Amino acid sequence: MSDYVVDARDLTKVYQMGDVEVHALRGLSIKIKRGEVMSIMGPSGSGKSTLMNTLGCLDRPTSGDYLLDGESVAELDDDQLADIRNRKVGFIFQTFNLLPRATAMANVELPMRYAGVTEGRSQRAQAALETVGLGDRVHHRPNELSGGQQQRVAIARALINNPAIVMADEPTGNLDTKSGDEIMKLLLGLNEEQGVTLIIVTHDPEIAARTNRIVTIRDGRVED
Amino acid sequence: MYWNSIITALESLTANKLRSALTILGIVIGVGAVIAMLAIGSGAQNTITGSIEGIGTNLLFVVSGGSEDVRNPKPLTLDDAEALTDSFQAPSVLGVAPTLQGNAEVSAQGEIHITQLNGVTTEYEFVRNATLYEGEFINEAHLLGRSAVVLLGWDVAEELFGRTDGVTGQRVRIEGQPFTVIGVLAQKGGTGFTNEDDRVLVPLTTAQARLLRRSTPNRVDMILVQAVSADDVAAATEEVSAILRARHRTAIGEDDFTVFNQQDFVDTAQQITGVFTIFLGGIAAISLLVGGIGIMNIMLVSVIERTREIGLRKALGARKSDILVQFLAESSLLSLTGGILGIVLGWLIATIVGIIAANANADINPVIGLDAVLLATLFSTAVGLFFGLYPANRAASLEPVEALRYE
Questions:
Q1: Contacts of A102 in chain B (CB under 8 A)
Q2: pLDDT digit string, tens, across residues A60-87
Q3: Which string of DSSP letters, residue by residue, matches A112-159?
Q4: What is the rounded distance in angstroms from the CA atom of residue A135 to the CA atom of residue A73?
């Protein structure tokens, strides 16, 4: 197996906005090593979100090759992509995106449900919630948890299927400084202890500074 | 997997209780209406069929008129009736009762009542199993003497005298002519197409001479024929037809008369009430359709509201089919719940209609068949699936990137 968990070459992405073609990615190449903590920075409109969506297999590139964990994913159909996302990608969002009516446990179980796991789901979810320090909040609903706690549930959910990469989009953007710091500590700790490959998209230079590598995107390309 | 979908569907439906309840209500009313209409329809059918069957399974009704190809059709006459009593040519025939039928105005003590008038012979009593509440039946002397005597039906007696006791011996006027009441017919109850209690019987000869004059002398309107038993109805029909064909000299296949038996009436009645039931059920089904559109409406709103949730589920690995199943589970759960409650509502309506009908003396016992229940359940679930399909498909086709970005 290759050392690179992400190996993307010459990615382009063209959106059709009415009559105008928008080139969000212009031949971008990026490699990410297993166990790396990387941050992606860049101004609005730089193609940062498009890159994240592409690396997270939420969207397909218009052209280019993308090997995720050794699998070529650039030309898969919707259901195959869903499968890849389920097994190989964990998402952490700025707005947490928990199901409001479901308990922490049920939220964490969700990816296992789509993976078709039937046995031992609640034990695994319980263990994941304990890892993020929420062992005593298992049956709480999101509205009974603080922002930091909600993001912890989201992290537990992102890790539950042992993904190849974890994509975090402004994971501290909706949190106060203290909880944001705790979330960063948690993420970096998970990287150290479990070797989770972490890709953090952020505006915040302080957050970026805590990662091994900073990649800046400008005009759809990696800035040197 | 499916169990999970049902749980998820339940969760999201209970999150919006009032909305779910109102959506279900549409289906409840639709299914309830269908069930009630079908139940009342089949209840009416049973009542009508029952009252026709009450006429007697071994009766034949011979009326004039048949194939239109007969060039010179002859009416039925008393002689025809007489010929049918021939026990050599018609061994399956037990009794023959020719009748004249018409409407007449009957009055007494200033009360006027328009009713059905039957001119009958003495055989009528046995052929039709006519029982008397009081007095006695028309006899040979009455027929020979063309007597001005009359038997009153139960309702007629009630109408004219306000009672049914001691009416015998009273005088009434029929079409202005004086008649003496010689008896009151026992109450038959149970109404089908005609009210057996709302009529009067007079001697056939009296009717011929004074009340129901026909262009051909000796003409009768209907000949009632009693077969020896229910099993001999077919044989009796053949014998009667053969005799009448010979007497009327018609070619084979071109009868100028028609023989009905009770089964023919039952079949006709069932056909009519069947159409009636389908018609009512069809109208009720429209409300079910409207309920289905309600489901579709709510599901569309729900898909839009939950765009982000759908995006998230897709990001976490939900396939198109997972989302499709989730939304279909919701819409079919709505319609299935509505269907079950609708069956209960339909049963209630049918029972209440039955009680009202019983109080109004129209004996309808609504019948909720298992087939109607199954049909309603299946149909309502199908409605949920059908009207849920479009919204669910819309949800399943959302692009995860767009859906996640949706505010």
A1: 11
A2: 999 999 999 989 998 899 999 999 999 9
A3: HHHHT--SSHHHHHHHHHHHTT-TT-TT--GGGS-HHHHHHHHHHHHH
A4: 36
Q: How far apart are CA A53 and CA A41, in angstroms?
A: 14
A117–chain B Cβ distance below 8 A for any pair: no
Burial of B232 (0-12, 13-18, 19+ CB in 10 A): middle
What ipTM was reported for this prediction?
A: 0.93
> What are A151-177's pLDDT values in tens digits?
999 999 999 999 999 999 999 999 999
**Cβ contact B401–A59 (<8 Å):** yes
> Quick one: pLDDT at residue A1?
54
- Residue in chain A nearest B403 by alpha carbon: A58
Q: Which residue of B has its CA nearest to A54?
A: B401
Euclidean distance between CA atoms B314 and B322, whole angstroms: 9
- In b/e form, how buried is each residue of A32-43, taking b as 16+ CB within 10 angstroms? bebebbbbbbbe
Task: Name the residue of chain B whose CA is nearest to A159's CA.
Answer: B316
- Tell me the shortest Cα–Cα distance from A56 to chain B, in angstroms: 9
Which pLDDT belongs to residue A168?
94
Q: Which residue has the tokens 């009636």?
A: B276
Nearest Cα to B157, choosing from B176, B140, B135, B130?
B135
Measured from the Cβ of residue B244, the count of other Cβ atoms closer than 10 Å reads: 23
For residue B85, the model assigns a pLDDT of: 85
Q: Do A59 and B317 touch (CB under 8 A)?
A: no
pLDDT at A123: 94
Q: Which domains does chain A have, with CATH numbers?
A: 35-62+75-223 (3.40.50.300)
Edge-to-edge order in the sheet of strand A20-33: A20-33, A4-17, A63-68, A71-72
E strands of B121-161, at which residues?
132-135, 149-152
For residue B273, CA distances in Å to A51, B37, B281, B294 come to: 70, 12, 12, 32
- Rg of chain A over Cα atoms, rounded to whole angstroms, equals 17
Residues 6+ away with beta carbon under 8 Å from A190? A131, A155, A159, A196, A198
Shortest alpha-carbon distance between residue B301 and chain A (Å): 18
Cross-chain Cβ contact A83/B314 below 8 Å = no
